[in-house]
Amino acid sequence: ILCVNITIIDDSLVERDEESFTVEAVEAAGCEASAKSIIIRIRDNDALQVALMAPEVVEEDVGIVSVCLNITGEPDTYISSTAVFMISTQNGSASAGLDYSSSNLTFNGVTE
């Protein structure tokens, strides 16, 4: 048995769940390969981290409070264009329409 080592590079990009590459056997003179190719699959071990950022307490007369979606990680082009994040408000002791205006937002893709 002859082996070749192929290094898998552990980058920090958030990529598709699974990527692949093919290894092919090239016939040498006087030899015939029974398995001509195999597919090696690589599972990504990186993830985007998502956190909401906003002040925990605001005065009633503040008018508007900004809530930010903080996304950390390095998305590749595929993830940047296909990621979907949804933000919605839900009543606690405050009521939508009486104490705050409800909001439902969807962000498509990751922008820097």
Please render the helix and strand layout as text.
Layout: E1 13-14, E2 18-24, E3 37-43, E4 49-53, E5 68-72, E6 74-75, H1 77-82, E7 84-88, E8 104-108
Parallel strand pairs: 1-6
Antiparallel strand pairs: 2-3, 4-5, 7-8
Notes on the protein architecture:
The protein is mostly beta strands and 112 residues long. It is 5% helix and 34% strand. The chain is built from one helix and eight strands, in the order E-E-E-E-E-E-H-E-E. It has one helix at residues 77-82, and strands spanning 13-14, 18-24, 37-43, 49-53, 68-72, 74-75, 84-88, 104-108. The chain has a two-stranded parallel ribbon. A two-stranded antiparallel sheet has the order 2-3. A two-stranded antiparallel ribbon has the order 4-5. The longest helix has 6 residues, at 77-82. It is rod-shaped, with a radius of gyration of 25 Å. The two termini are 49 Å apart.
Provide the residue-averaged pLDDT.
80
Main beta sheet: 2 strands, parallel
Biggest β-sheet: strands ordered side by side in the sheet: 1-6
- Helical segment count: 1
> Which parts are unreliable, with pLDDT below 50 for 5 consecutive residues or more?
none
Shape: rod-shaped
Structure class: mainly beta
Distance between the termini: 49 Å
Number of strands: 8
Based on CA atoms alone, the radius of gyration comes out at: 25 Å
Order of helices and strands: EEEEEEHEE
Question: Helix coverage percent of residues?
Answer: under 10%
Give the amount of beta strand, in percent: 25-35%
